[in-house]
Design a protein that fits this description.
- The relative contact order is 0.13.
- Helix 4 (97-115) packs parallel to helix 5 (153-167).
- It is built from 15 helices and 20 strands.
- The chain is an alpha/beta fold.
- The structure holds nicotinamide-adenine-dinucleotide.
- The site of nicotinamide-adenine-dinucleotide (NAD) has 29 residues, from helix 8 and helix 9.
Amino acid sequence: MKKFQSYINGTWIDSSTGEIIVVDNPATEEIVGEVACASNEDVDLAVEAAKKSFLKRDLVDMHPMERSKLMRSIAIELRNISKEAGKLLCYENGKLLSGAEYEFQDAANYFDYYGGLTDKLEGSTIPVSKGVVDYTILEPYGVSAHIIPWNYPISMIGRSLACSIATGNSTVIKTPELAPLAATSYFAEALEKAGIPKGTVNIICGYGEKTGSYLVSHPDVNHIAFTGSVETGKKILHAAADKAIPAVVELGGKSAGIVYPDADLDKVVNSAKTAIFGVAGQICSAMSRLVVHKSVKDELVDKLVNLTKSLKVGAGYEKGVDCTPVISKNQLEKVEGYARSGIQAGAEAVAGGKKIEGKGYFFESTVLDGVKQDMTVAREEIFGPVLSIIEYEDSDEAIQIANDTDYGLAAGVFTKNIDQATEASNKLEAGQIYVNSWFTGSIATPFGGYKQSGYSREKGQQALKSYLQVKNVGIQL
Ligand code: NAD
């Protein structure tokens, strides 16, 4: 069994209490490894190291071109380990091996992208009264605490950490207790090999309610970047409010795609394959609802059922597999409960609907037809491979159904009519709109939620603003 430690102040340490977190393989339920579970004392050490590094101005005084070189070196190290570390991520998280390896490349892309912006963080000069020179400087906050979810742990660290380093913040990362191994070990090793100054980045693991909440409430933490559920996001916002510090919160979703009568239905089916059945539907911006015009609903449902029949289920490291397990037994039971509640409320499981018996946390790729907007399956984030089909008759009704949710992370439009597409895009209440293909964005496009899906933005140049504060300087000449 592989054993991993916390990475604090450039050294590897066990938990001060000796506590560990044991991680299993969602495909087999076998133990993959264990990681140190950080105690409050360990969190104190990590925050102290980050604070010291910040006060020494390790990153702030590093020439922007040097910071850029450091970030590009981190990118190279992450790419170098993507095969080996991707394997560990695949075993602990359950996702496809290709997807796990890609996470390291994705994280590397963030370091390249933001590494190219370190020397472009420009302030401005402001005309004030005669004889006064007034200008702004963009400055980091200090110690930034990053709380990471288990569905894309490596990509999510890349997303927030690259911004944190580019802007000169020091960082303490708490990896997710359900898939912490590759993030706590390989990511830290890549940072170290690239020459990150000691204490600038510290990576620990622990349970959310204990280690996570202690970290975000720590008096020396000046900024929080959180990605996770709405429920936890609200707790994070309370912790931030108690200390009056900023928090970037990227939360869950219940995203709907509208299928207009002229839509290319094969494009809808292609999107479903990755956007709800890929990664077992454990995607924040999953296409979990399809709002489909009555005239094409039956044809689309047939195609979706055929899709589910063609998908091969198995462990992420097996050849030819499309659908992988959900992360845990709890998650499996939660997904099953949601599917059952939909069926009991009157929806029809035209595909799937139940867990797959045997070892591992596998749930059938599920299509629920006849879903009504007031059913729980249509309102709550399931985070599993369950697609709800909701029928509509006129286009205003489609927009109303799509927007009838507390969430606002993503939405989609399937139509050949560009006027229809732009009108719907204007009216949909979501941070990203996908037209004719789900996930059209990249690391360069701003990403974040409307309504309860969070605020601030990650990705793109926009994200850097969330990691910087503005100082105004006025000089009387
Ligand atoms: P979660 O909210 O249960 O946990 C997320 C992280 O928060 C974990 O590291 C956990 O240990 C920690 N945590 C839990 N309670 C805490 C507390 N009181 N204080 C501090 N930290 C705490 O979410 P999850 O189950 O790990 O991830 C799935 C959720 O994340 C889904 O809702 C999904 O939509 C969302 N998500 C959003 C995005 C996005 O970019 N918007 C990306 C990925 C996942």
